[in-house]
Design goal:
- Its main location: membrane.
- This is ABC transporter permease.
- The chain has 331 residues and is mainly alpha-helical.
- It folds into two domains: 49 residues, no CATH class; 237 residues, MetI-like (MetI-like fold, Orthogonal Bundle), CATH 1.10.3720.10.
- Helices cover 75% and strands 0% of the residues.
- The longest helix has 38 residues.
């Protein structure tokens, strides 16, 4: 019980520090959302004092508030689920923009991450089991693919499969000429899967090599353990030794990394979403940075931080449950 309380306290303090930094960093940058939006509106025409005051109140820009008062006000808004209003897409709330982009990112990046993990772990376990054979030739090729930049792989896939062969669309998450927006129909689901194939393939190609190499090395180390030798001496079938004794134990470190990867799924793949013009959180973040949309930046960073900390906390709980040594070393 002490172990779980210590981990809970640690992540609570980390979350408070992350939220505090999320509040302070934009205020240390030059300019503010009110000034930026006011300048944009003044380019298209005059802004009356009443409109200026309304925008100031809507964005929460109160001149006579101290930094501490703004900090308390910021926490109050967080408790109410209010992340502010986007300057880029004024007057749309930040929560609405993130809620619209989050399903696309989780669906695409999450699925591609799971496929990459399962594929890498499976091939890595097999390569470790068949070490010293032709299977080891998979390691250099997949490692090379992992070292390739995301955007280069994405552009190469677009050139080959979209521009040259014309098999897949170049941009977008669905056919905007056929559908006015997301809807619940098999035709729309098919369009989404069709448009998501190349972005997902980009993620898998760029990340499967890391899982494969890590699992292969852990598999080789696990096969040298005494309990593997004992299982072989008992005359157990190779299939059982491979699945029950070797693979299950060798996959433990990779599971921790997989938990962290799932946390970062919320962040999306920034370059990939930008190249394919995919309407996910990554593309939303780039738009916020380009337009100095501080409220949107804060909201996206907050969601990413909470997702990563939640994933790490859950993995800590799982590790504490399945490995008693973790509790005894930290409790």
């Amino acid at each position: 019980m002490t172990f779980y309380l210590r981990r809970l306290a640690f992540y609570a303090i980390t979350l408070w520090a992350a939220i505090s930094l999320n509040f302070l960093i934009p205020r240390m940058l030059p300019g503010d959302p009110f000034t930026i939006l006011l300048a944009k509106l003044q380019r298209s025409g005059g802004v009356t004092p009443s409109v200026e005051n309304s925008i100031r109140l809507l964005l929460g820009a109160v001149e006579d508030q101290t930094l501490w008062e703004q900090y308390v006000h910021y926490w109050g808004n967080l408790v109410r689920g209010d992340l502010g209003v986007s300057v880029t897409q004024f007057p749309t709330p930040v929560t609405e923009l993130i809620a619209g982009a989050l399903p696309w990112t989780i669906g695409l990046v999450g699925t591609a991450t799971v496929i990459s993990f399962v594929l890498g772990i499976g091939l890595g376990a097999f390569a470790g089991w068949k070490r010293g054979t032709w299977v080891d030739s998979l390691i250099p090729s997949t490692t090379m693919m992992q070292s390739l930049p995301y955007f280069w792989v994405a552009l190469l896939l677009i050139f080959v499969f979209s521009v040259t062969l014309g098999w897949f669309p170049i941009i977008g998450a669905y056919d905007v000429f056929e559908f006015n927006g997301p809807e619940w129909s098999w035709a729309f689901v098919g369009s989404v899967l069709y448009h998501a194939f190349l972005p997902a393939l980009t993620i898998v190609i760029s990340s499967v090599g890391g899982w494969l190499l890590g699992m292969r090395n852990m598999m080789v180390a696990t096969l040298s353990e005494d309990y593997i030798t004992t299982a072989e001496a008992k005359g157990l079938r190779p299939r059982r030794i491979f699945m029950t004794y070797a693979t299950r134990n060798a996959a433990m470190p990779s599971l921790a990394g997989f938990g962290v990867s799932l946390g970062f799924v919320v962040a999306g793949s920034l370059v990939m979403e930008q190249v394919f013009t995919y309407p996910g959180v990554g593309k939303l973040m780039i738009q916020a940075v380009r337009n100095n949309d501080y409220a949107l930046m804060q909201g996206v960073f907050l969601v990413i931080t909470v997702a990563v900390l939640a994933a790490l906390f859950i993995m800590d709980l799982i590790y504490g449950f399945i490995d008693p040594r973790t509790r005894s070393n930290n409790g």
